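[User] I have long wanted to understand how a fold can be written as tokens. Those tokens are not coordinates but codes from a learned vocabulary of shapes. Could you go through the record with me and say what the backbone is doing? Thank you; the sequence and its tokens follow:
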Amino acid sequence: MEILPNEVESIKVIGNLFDDEVKIIKCIGGFHVAVGKRNKRNKNQEALAAGSHPALVAHQLHKQFGSDFQPAIMKSEHDRMPTIEDKSTYLSRDNIEKGIELYVLQKHNDFEFIACKNGITLCKYDATAEDNKLLIKSYFFNKKMLNPNRNLADSLAKSINDKLYELKLSEVEYNKENK
């Protein structure tokens, strides 16, 4: 994978792998790539994981390298990664076989419900918990990558309802501007 300098928005250290830094490259457009040495003997850095959100990339690094990957301690609360829940078990067998994954990211009272494939976001709901409601602030569907899929919509709805139940909220409300 080759990333040209004019495609890079920012570069940050997100942790260490085998005592070498792992950096995340944020590309213009929001794609994130973790770069580092795959093992102790490698001399060259390479792409280790990629995704639409830095927390998903860090999650992939944890799954791939286990305790060998040590995330960086963030200096401020603002820089901290959200917690990630893998809700891929809610997906239909067909969607799992297609390589689709489903995650819920939480940072304080803000949530992202993300369905992705190969690190590319297929659909995403941004929500916040307020006034006993889960308010869906915005949503996105990647129409180039996603064919209408009722099973995927049902899986996203299950993950949203699961969070509603977990937080003991009474209802889901959509931002009226997005209807």
Observations:
- The mean pLDDT is 86.
- The domain at 82-178 is CATH 3.40.630.30 (Aminopeptidase).
- The chain has two domains: 5-72, 82-178.
